[in-house]
Amino acid sequence: MITKMTKYSFIMLSDETGNFLTRLQDLGVVDITRARKPVDTTSSAMLEKAGEIKKAISLLGKIDYTKDDDSEAILKRAESVTVPADVASAAADTVTEMEKLRTRLDQASRETGERLPWGDFNPADIKKLEDNGYTIRWYKVPVKKFREEWAEEYALQVIENDGSYVWFVTVSETGTEYTFPVQETTAPGGNWKESQAEAERIEDEIISAKALLLKMKGYIPELKEAYARELSDLDLYLAGASKETAAENMVTVFTGFAPSEDDERLQAEFDSMDMAYVKESAVEEDNPPIKLKNNWFTRQFEVLTGMYGMPVYSEFDPTPILGPFFLLFFALCMGDAGYGILLILIGQFLKKTKGSMARLSSLVTILGVGCIFIGIVLGTFFGINIAEAGWVPEWLKKCMITGEVAGYSAQMVLAIAIGVFHICLAMTIKAVCYTKRFGFKANISTWAWLILIIGGIITAGMALLGVISEPVTKWTVIVLGIVSGLGIYIFNTPGRNPLINVGAGLWDTYNMATGLLGDVLSYIRLYALGLAGGMLGGAFNDLGMMLHDGIPVPGLDWLGFAVIVLLGHALNLAMSCLGAFVHPLRLTFVEYFKNSGYEGRGTAYRPLARQTEQ
């Protein structure tokens, strides 16, 4: 099946692309393309505005004050605050202002702690003393260094003693000689109550800012709509922007696709980046890259689908049908159970290698298993006809297809029957998928041919087996002919001139008759290649026995036999593998894909990722 994809559109200045691509490479899931477009003052302002809105959405999305110490006060004040018209700018300005307020609060709190030991003094009184010719000096010393006798020599007043430090001041006449045993400290800038009041005022401003941010958080849906509009306007503007702008002043527009199953993880990553982006579900018109998602068995055959071409986004993944039929066709072309054993051994050997060959090991092993079963059904083992061998159990011989059907080899009839079924399946898939993509009205002729061919085959089979009587067969054929004829010749293109429809139907009939006959006969190659491989393997066995019988020296006769048989079967295995690979591919790529309407014009999903050594 085809993995559902999500389309991402990224817009950024060209000098920001390096880090962006590095992040995408680390993610390893985004298939990215880019286009460079000129940017001028207008588009630059639009891009800046989109980035501002994106940043505001991210900032407001993180707002949560439920565990804040002032949560109740914030909630209460948020009810009365007024949100500015430009929410995006206000959010950024408010966050910036809050950072400044926090810095000022830290400073005010620090000043309060420094001033508190000096007590509740009036700065005006200090100024009055200085005006009267006295100088106040401030000291802070550890308790161990403080001396009580200083009070006997100086006009000293202890202000605070907390057991670790002593805060005190001295008073002396201005202009007189003064010395003191310890260095004075910086005088407090004011009363501690002043700085405490300033801290409380700042805390109140922070509560107001938080309340405003909390109120603006409710505007996130409107911001997202504005962000989408801004990006849409920017994309429209860039589409018609002049290409004469300087090359170094460019904006880069990236379009990326990633599996929708990774949406949640990728959106979290992109939201953490400072960029503008739009996310939407991919549609066929976007031509998204194709990533196939199949089970372990079917996944081994995806390489064959890729050889022809990946499906487009609205098409179907042919691999689930291609895989089993390719396995069947390959085994029929090989036609030898012994060669299947050798392929399994080769597959196990490839598993121990590195690179692309190692990735083919599972496919080769699966093909080998298929060859064993089909080889038994065809009755060939290393060129030996085991259907006639006496050492093969009778119950196993009953599983083999031998003899003739209506004078033709049963194995050839089997190959043609498989071809008929394969083509009918292709036509059914075409009818269903084309109807889903383009509607029933545009595919009336396709359904008519399907009814005629499959209905005719079923009717003929039931008549030959005696399931339905001759009259029933007659009327069934008449009904099928009328219904399909109307669809093929009259209503193949509704609304068009009926005469043109008849002409188109006749031409379609000619192409269908000649084409289907050639397509069905192409499947005879399945029988022919298997028969040729088995006969050639038997011929080498006969040559080996002839050489064995012609050498009279014991031991040397078996050596000659072994050389002929080993070399012969090695050559036959190589030629059979080549034919068994090429011809089933042709039956798939030509006969099947043509009748199923498969186009294969899609692009393979190749995400930007770091390369690792295989």
Q: Roughly what is the average pLDDT, rounded to an integer?
A: 84
Unreliable residue stretches: 240-248
Helix content: 55-70%
Shape: elongated
**Main structural class:** alpha+beta
Strand-residue proportion: 5-15%
Main sheet strand line-up: 2-6-1-7
Give the tally of β-strands. 11
How are the secondary structure elements laid out?
Blueprint: E1 5-13, H1 17-27, E2 31-38, H2 41-61, H3 71-78, H4 87-115, H5 123-131, E3 134-142, H6 150-153, E4 155-161, E5 165-173, H7 192-217, H8 220-239, E6 250-259, H9 263-272, E7 276-281, H10 296-299, H11 302-308, H12 319-334, H13 337-350, H14 356-359, H15 361-378, E8 380-381, E9 384-385, H16 394-397, E10 404-405, E11 408-409, H17 410-438, H18 444-464, H19 470-490, H20 498-522, H21 524-550, H22 556-596
Antiparallel strand pairs: 1-6, 1-7, 2-6, 3-5, 4-5, 8-9, 10-11
Helix pairs in contact: 2-4, 2-8, 3-7, 4-7, 12-15, 12-21, 12-22, 13-15, 17-18, 17-20, 17-21, 17-22, 18-19, 21-22
Written account of the structure:
This protein has 614 residues and is α+β, with helices and mostly antiparallel strands. It folds into 3 domains: 182 residues, no CATH class; 70 residues, no CATH class; 205 residues, no CATH class. Helices cover 60% and strands 11% of the residues. It contains 22 helices and 11 strands. The strands form 4 sheets. It has a 4-stranded antiparallel sheet with strand order 2-6-1-7. It has a 3-stranded antiparallel sheet with strand order 3-5-4. Helix 17 packs antiparallel against helix 20. The longest helix has 41 residues. About 1% of the residues have low confidence.
